[in-house]
């Protein structure tokens, strides 16, 4: 049980009864003190022993995002037939595989898009001696910057409405 204490303190200050031929009432300063109740329930658990809860984002439907990524990247890179030739499908497959791994393991929602998977795409394409490594990685990064967070927010807002 908490106890609230309200105290009044008054002190009389002596003043002459007349100043400039006007009567003045003595002024009494009034001080109010109020104490806030402290409950013993709040003090029973030390604050250092409670961990803050970490928010975990729901899945961004990686399969949908990867399928959309693959389709859009194929459409974008098909404009560069002289660069990719017959290896366009292989290039897109390598990029989609790395993008899929990133979405499943590292992506955590808006603001968590990293550059590493796109540099990994460029390195993997160069290691496999596939054409257009830099162009493919750049196109992949630009697509992801424009659509991944936006699609994720659209999907999660639909999930919340259900």
UniProtKB/TrEMBL annotation:
<protein>
    <submittedName>
        <fullName>Protein PLASTID REDOX INSENSITIVE 2, chloroplastic-like isoform X2</fullName>
    </submittedName>
</protein>
<dbReference type="InterPro" id="IPR039349">
    <property type="entry name" value="PRIN2"/>
</dbReference>
<dbReference type="GO" id="GO:0010468">
    <property type="term" value="P:regulation of gene expression"/>
</dbReference>
């Amino acid at each position: 049980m908490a106890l609230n204490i309200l105290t009044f303190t008054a002190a009389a200050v002596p003043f002459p009864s007349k100043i400039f031929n006007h009567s003045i009432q003595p002024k009494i300063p009034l001080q109010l003190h109020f104490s806030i109740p402290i409950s013993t329930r709040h003090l029973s658990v030390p604050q250092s022993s409670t961990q803050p809860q970490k928010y975990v984002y729901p899945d961004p439907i990686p399969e949908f995002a990867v399928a959309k990524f693959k389709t859009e990247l194929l459409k974008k890179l098909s404009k560069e037939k002289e660069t990719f030739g017959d290896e366009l499908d292989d290039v897109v497959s390598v990029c989609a595989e790395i993008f899929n791994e990133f979405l499943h393991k590292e992506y955590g929602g808006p603001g968590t898009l990293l550059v590493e998977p796109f540099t990994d795409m460029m390195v993997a394409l160069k290691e496999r001696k596939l054409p257009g490594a830099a162009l493919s990685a750049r196109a992949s990064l630009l697509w992801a910057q424009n659509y991944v967070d936006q699609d994720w927010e659209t999907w999660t807002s639909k999930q919340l409405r259900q």
